[in-house]
User: Fold this.
Amino acid sequence: MASATSRSTQNRLLAALPRAALERYFSELRPVSLIQRQVLYEPGAPLTHVYFVNEGVVSILTKMADATTIEVGMIGIEGAVGTAALLGGETSSQQALVQVAGSALRMNAAECKAAFDQSPAVRAVMMRFIEALFDLSAQTVACNRLHTIEQRCARWLMMARDRLQDDIMPMTHEFLASMLGVRRAGVTETAGELQRSGLIRYHHGRLTIIDREGLEATACECYRIDHNLFMRVCDAGQLGLQEKIKSFVRTRTKNAPRPKHVEV
Assistant:
C-alpha cells in the first residue's frame, strides 16, 4: 500500500467545510485507527459516534438472520460512518465493517448532530454525502440483480480503488464473496479470469490492479454512475477546498496510531 504521505488521507467532508465551521463545531475530533475486519457498528447498536474516514475503506453490509451479508454501501475518504444519527437515527440498521485498514477522525454523534442542526454549511455538506450514499445503495440493488459476477467484481474493485487512491489492496476471495453476496467458488473463478486477462494480479491475500482501463471496461455501467457520485462529493473546486483546512485536518491526524493490516 502507498504511504499516507504519498496519497491523500484527508476526509473530503471536513475539507469542504468553512474554517469557521470546523473550528466551532469540530474541535473535539479525535484520531482513531481503523483495523481490518473491525466492526464499527452492528445492526441494532446505538449510534454513539460518527467516523470521518481519512484513509481506508468501510463496507456497509446488510446482515441476514443466518449471518450471511451483502454489501449495500462503501465509504472512504469521501464520507463518514454513522450519519444516520444526523437524521435522528438512534441505532444502526446495518453492519459497518472495515474492509481496508486506515484511520478516521471520530466525533460524538450527539455533537455532530448539533452541528448538523445549527449550521447550514455543515448541513449542506453532510446532506450531499448522505444523498450520494442513498444513491449508491439503490444502484447496488439493481447491480446485484441484473449484472454478472464478473461485472460486479470489476465494479467493486474499481470503487475500492477510487476510495483508496491506490491500485494495491488487501483482499481474499472469501471476503470479496461476502461483499458481493455470492459463493466463494464463483469469486475464485471470476478473479482467475480477470487475472488471466491481465487486469489484476492476486498473490497471498494482496490484489493489484494491473490494467485500470481494462478493468473499468469489464465493469458494468454502475461503476461510472458510482464514480460520478464519488467525484461529486470529492470535487475539491466545487466544494471550496482550502489549504488552511488541509492544515487543520493534518494537525488532527498527525498523532493518530498507525493502522494495522491483518493477514487473512
